[in-house]
Amino acid sequence: MDLKILNPEIQQFINNNLDKNIAQLALQKNPFPEIEWITILNQIEAKTKSKDKLPHWFTAKNIIYPSKISVEQTSSEKTASYKSELVSGESLIDLTGGFGVDDFYFAKKIKEVTHCEINPELSQIVQHNFEQLNVKNIDCQSGDSLEILAKSNSKYDWIYIDPSRRNDTKGKVFMLKDCLPNVPEHLDFLFNSSDKILIKTAPLLDISAGLSELKNVKSIHIVALENEVKELLWELHRDYFGKTNLKTVNIVKKNRETFEFVLDENSIIPEYGLPEKYLYEPNSAIMKSGGFDEVSAFYKLKKLHKHSHLYTNSAIISFSGRIFEIENTISYHKNEMKNFLQGKQANITTRNFPETVESIRKKWKIKEGGHHYCFFTTDENDNKIVLICKKITS
Fold first, then answer.
1. Is 15 found in the same domain as 78?
2. Domain boundary pick from 53, 71, 89
3. What positions does the domain THUMP-like occupy (predicted)?
């Protein structure tokens, strides 16, 4: 960690060049020969990426940033804030501390937080930044977190862990055993130090695969930000042996769309029906959950088809996702397409349909955009249909 980067003139230069083209800046002569040019460029690029994602860090003075990849991989403040609502108590140890965004929010709920980071330089940077952010209840320790935990005589209220996928697993099915640390392998060891474990994984992890590798899973949280799934959170309680609760959360501006259900082997039988007045499209968190029949039962909506994952009714209701008014339902045939859509402008979505959006646009010369939303899908009678809609809520 080179503290010369905190020189007021260098900091001013960094702030003056945010959002600038880094490749073009790299061709310029370094105006500060006392520090490497690449170091300054990295600060510009990393701080630019933190503007919307990490507003507390972006607006604070004398913050030092790690590599841009570390900033890209860290939790956003919005998802970190959500995670902090899941924990409570006196102590928490984070075994994969990283840039420390999650711990910043854990420290608002937990009296003592331990931040473990194997990279000594990153650990120093995080400790420095916590001082600038006036956070006093986080202890930064550098080294192998499992060794730190083994040497500690403490019993923690929570263990938090965000395992990273090993580089040699590219192209393989994403499994927790392929990550560092290997959580399934060390689970009994971890439960010796805490009764409660919170694990963050990438959305790529299949929920059934995660459940097959873990035990004592009380809850799974699927967290989306502006309808993009960002992370899965696994709550493990040592003495819990019941069914797993699954909660979906879509953080949209200042609001949250939530939906939850219990994972149960007894399947729910949904009601099916042809398109009525309104169409409901679940948000991305619900889509990741696989709780499509549960959505139908909870909201009392009819499913268009077993595999379409679109819903309908005749009276508008509050819903975790997008709502559309169906203006027309047409068969996917040449004459209907020519009359209603060929050469027009529309937003296209496909659900349980044999053609891609790109092929549909090319085939029928449909321009992108406009006020109409067209869903190419399959109804309960296995007919290929197109629902021409206008959006009511996003």
1. no
2. 71
3. 321-391
* Residue-wise pLDDT tens digits, 55-111: 999 999 999 999 888 888 899 999 999 999 999 999 999 999 999 999 999 999 999
Same domain, 144 and 199: yes
Q: What is the DSSP letter of 272?
A: B
Would you say residue 166 has pLDDT above 80?
no
With H, G, I as helix, E, B as strand and everything else as coil, classify residue 7. coil
- Predicted TM-score (pTM) above 0.85: yes
Task: Look up the domain containing 387 and give its range.
Answer: 278-393
Check whether 264 has a pLDDT greater than 90: no
Determine contact, residues 32/10, Cβ cutoff 8 Å. yes
Q: What token pair was written down for 377? A: 């899908």
Separation CA 306–CA 322 (nearest Å)? 19
Which residues, listed in sequence order, are joined to residue 159 by a DSSP beta bridge? Answer: 93, 197
Q: Is residue 269 part of a domain?
A: no
Q: Is the dihedral of CA 12, 17, 23, 28 positive or negative?
A: negative
